Amino acid sequence: MEINKEEILEELKASSKLQIQQNLLKKRQLRMLVMILLLFTLLFTVVYSTLENPFQYTLSMIGNRFTYREWFIIWGVVTGFCLQTSSIALFKLEGYEDKKASRYVIYGAVFLVLTAIIPAIEEKMLFWHRVHMLTAVFYALFFMIGVGPFVLWVSKENPRLRKIISIWIYTIIGGSVFSLVFLGMTGIFEVWFIVGLTLFLMYLSMTLFEEEIVKESVRLLRDEENLNLGIEKIFIKLEEKEKIKRKKHK
């Protein structure tokens, strides 16, 4: 039996192209999920924090001293889940293999939920107020030691992004310290940290995914004159295939 080397090579190329296309589609879908979760976190945080004056009250005070206790708990659960899921998804997208980072982010989310659940009225429940303060510190700490090393790793892997990443980090930390020093422990301090972190993760999600698309597309579309048009064709074809598969399963 004669082996047709050219035919085998063509089959391998087609298989490789299909794998790259499917990989890009999966990453695109995951990126969309990350963006939706982060956008929801951003909007929910802004809406909740402005139920009362954030320059006067912390997020905890808004929930515990007014009639928004249930909303504070819901906000804590939703924000913890969204930040945790988004961060771990970004780790996966970039192939970041430090398992400790994922665990730290999960711990941070758990402590955020506990912070929202534990009552924090100092005059009536001093012990629980102190526990609440402790869990609040732990949630911020675990998020920083979970996401921080990943950000530094991304900065090393992508020297082009090093400067902008440094600006983001200095803005988040500097703004938080500034608001704490000049405004005291208010909602603005908390909102700055959470909103800043959320926007930063959104920026990373968009930028890193776009870079991944370009890298894979250069390999896939060597013969394509218009790279942008070629990329859109890939996703349109794959989405059509996905729809056909779903119809068959139904």
Q: State the low-pLDDT regions, or none.
A: 1-5
Structural class: mainly alpha
Largest beta sheet, briefly? none
Q: How confident overall, as mean pLDDT?
A: 82
User: What form results from the Cα inertia axes?
Assistant: globular
Order of helices and strands: HHHHHHHH
Distance between the termini: 42 Å
Strand % is: under 5%
Describe this structure in words.
By secondary structure, the protein is mainly alpha-helical. The protein has one domain (22-249). It is 83% helix and 0% strand. The chain is built from eight helices and no strands. The longest helix has 45 residues, at 5-49. It is globular. The two termini are 42 Å apart.
In short:
With 250 residues, this protein is mostly helical. It has helices spanning 5-49, 59-64, 69-94, 99-117, 126-157, 162-183, 187-220, 227-249.
Give the topology, please.
Blueprint: H1 5-49, H2 59-64, H3 69-94, H4 99-117, H5 126-157, H6 162-183, H7 187-220, H8 227-249
Helix pairs in contact: 1-3, 1-7, 1-8, 3-4, 3-7, 4-5, 6-7
Keywords for this entry:
mainly alpha; single chain; globular; about 250 residues; disordered N terminus
